[in-house]
Amino acid sequence: MAEAHQAVAFQFTVTPDGVDFRLSREALKHVYLSGINSWKKRLIRIKNGILRGVYPGSPTSWLVVIMATVGSSFCDVDVSLGLVSCIQRCLPQGCGPYQTPQTRALLSMTIFSTGVWVTGIFFFRQTLKLLLSYHGWMFEMHGKTSNLTRIWAMCIRLLSSRHPMLYSFQTSLPKLPVPRVSATIQRDLVLIKNTDVQAARLGNIIHAMIMYRRKLDREEIKPVMALGIVPMCSYQMERMFNTTRIPGKDTDVLQHLSDSRHVAVYHKGRFFKLWLYEGSRLLKPQDLEMQFQRILDDPSPPQPGEEKLAALTAGGRVEWAQARQAFFSSGKNKAALETIERAAFFVALDEESYCYDPEDEASLSLYGKALLHGNCYNRWFDKSFTLISFKNGQLGLNAEHAWADAPIIGHLWEFVLGTDSFHLGYTETGHCLGKPNPALAPPTRLQWDIPKQCQAVIESSYQVAKALADDVELYCFQFLPFGKGLIKKCRTSPDAFVQIALQLAHFRDRGKFCLTYEASMTRMFREGRTETVRSCTSESTAFVQAMMEGSHTKADLRDLFQKAAKKHQNMYRLAMTGAGIDRHLFCLYLVSKYLGVSSPFLAEVLSEPWRLSTSQIPQSQIRMFDPEQHPNHLGAGGGFGPVADDGYGVSYMIAGENTIFFHISSKFSSSETNAQRFGNHIRQALLDIADLFQVPKADS
Q: Any catalytic annotation for residue 401?
């Protein structure tokens, strides 16, 4: 009952003697501190706005213009060319604040300065948008820069601020039903282990995550830049924390809170609430380690229906929405569910141990399967991401896809792993540095009252999720013969090299070509998400067919390959700069639905299955450390499930000069696909293409 009383700030009871009114000091304290923390963030943002100085559009720049106009009048210089005097004559005379000449002059200069400021903002933004519409620099050869691009770069550096100014058509799309939950995974460092102590690793990692959120709130995260010039839009980062997907009968919605001061934790079928702050102070790593160890040591059993509760987020969305309305809309169930949905993120403490053993190839695939779906009820798939902690201290992320794309969560993960390894550290025994505060209140168990009818719905959702998970075949491997070092010697794009190898591998695997999807980021546009690169081109098929015939010389094959690679690079650049076709087709589809117009063309085009869905995982988005000096601090990237029932999902990470990681998924229920077989074809295709160029391998 103590937990139930702590859930409200006050309560009152009507008795024959009057009204009994009680306050919860602890709850009121958190409300007060939350307000203080919110105002601190606002003041920090105002300070950052001032530090940005005279950037057009900021209040500081308006004051600078006014001061310049007033200052020039003291030097007997009329910068307005008579406009201030004209405005002064137009002001009404002899009333109120206009009765003294000095006041009338100051007001006239303020009006003139405001007009100049507004005109300057309009001119600046239109000029910058015009400059950013130039994409010629993306299509120039490496090392060769035209004079036009040099002039453009100079103007961009002079005018551009931290904020991207391009606009994407995606910002004006109507709200749509959010599709079925899809997830991607991110792995831990695979070649080193910082500690075996599960609670200690969580202490450092979660402390680093909240440090990242604090930097994000204070606008201290430097934007990713294209060519070091154009800032890439990162609006999705705002939704990384404090975001949950809420199920609905017709459409899901994304609930995003401005702040959250706790995380929801799952361990052995129990749910806990763990505060991240003591008052306004962020808990230190050693305090977080102590709190997680308290959860790990808690012997209490799950409440009836609690253990598999999260399976509701993995089953049908309509069923979850109905159950949420029927069983979680009031009482302790509503309070407990809100604790999870209003958490900064979700933490799963697993009892199993997984890691990558280079001597055991299957270990990487098992590790990936555990991250992708777990046992189907130990991940809260509606949260923006679930941090997964294994018993041996290894970690991973399971990220929901509606709020953002994989590079965004990858940016966070790079920061967190770098901070953990190079800034926080551990003792010789593997614990967090420093002594914890034993006076901290322990994490709170969430209280549930789940009736038999709800337990039946939970079990039904679990069976649906388990059937889906059991059908996913995931094959992961590290390709060691070469990486981007050798590919660069072939004078081609590493991404084009891998994509053409995938086309060759798929033809060898299935004996035919298929519609191929490669995700391209459109982060050059404000609020841009992705565009599709259709990698199966006439040039790539010509190369594959020539390879299969076996009668062409290596010189002819190299020429066909270079043509295919050049075509792929050009298509990727077009997709990045808004000149792709699939998002435009999608917009036409939306318009047709809105107007009630039937389009056989759109119906056919949009129904074609992507039997080969691919994506490259970016790396080194931020320079937390030098990978050449720390080659073992290597991540394996992540992956996702297949898009089509008879297709493959391929995620790859060109992890360095000498290695590439692949994550290949398919469905066991399809007799036409086999993830491991396709992986072997990818290995051979990469080696066969490299053999055409006969270049020496990069030094190990």
A: yes
Nearest to 648 by CA among 476, 473, 487: 473
pLDDT tens digit sequence for 362-383:
999 999 999 999 999 999 999 9
pLDDT in tens, 111-126: 877 887 788 778 877 7
Which regions of 79-222 does DSSP assign to beta strands (E)?
A: 183-187
| Distance from C-alpha of 656 to C-alpha of 673, rounded to nearest angstrom | 29
Domain ranges of the chain: 2-51, 59-135+144-161, 173-470, 473-577+609-693
617/184 Cα distance (integer angstroms):
11
Query: Fold identical between 173-470 and 473-577+609-693?
Result: yes
The catalytically annotated residue of 135, 401, 552, 630 is 401
CA gap 349, 295 in Å, rounded:
9
pTM, two decimal places: 0.81
- Asked whether the beta carbons of 205 and 416 are under 8 A apart, the reply is yes
Residue 15 bridge partners (DSSP): 18
438 and 270 Cβ atoms separated by less than 8 Å: no
Number of Cβ within 10 Å of residue 73's Cβ equals 15
- Mean local confidence (pLDDT), 284-312: 97
Helices (H), ranges, 233-329: 285-297, 317-327
Tokens of 660: 């590439």
Pairing of β 281-282 and β 648-653: unpaired
| Burial class of residue 298, CB neighbours in 10 A (0-12, 13-18, 19+) | middle
Give the CA distances from residue 80 to residues 69, 76, 92, 123, 306, in Å, rounded to whole numbers and listed in that order.
8, 12, 20, 18, 72
Classify the C-alpha dihedral 126-130-131-133 as positive or negative. positive
Q: Which architecture characterizes domain 173-470 according to CATH?
A: 2-Layer Sandwich (3.30)
CATH numeric code, 473-577+609-693: 3.30.559.10
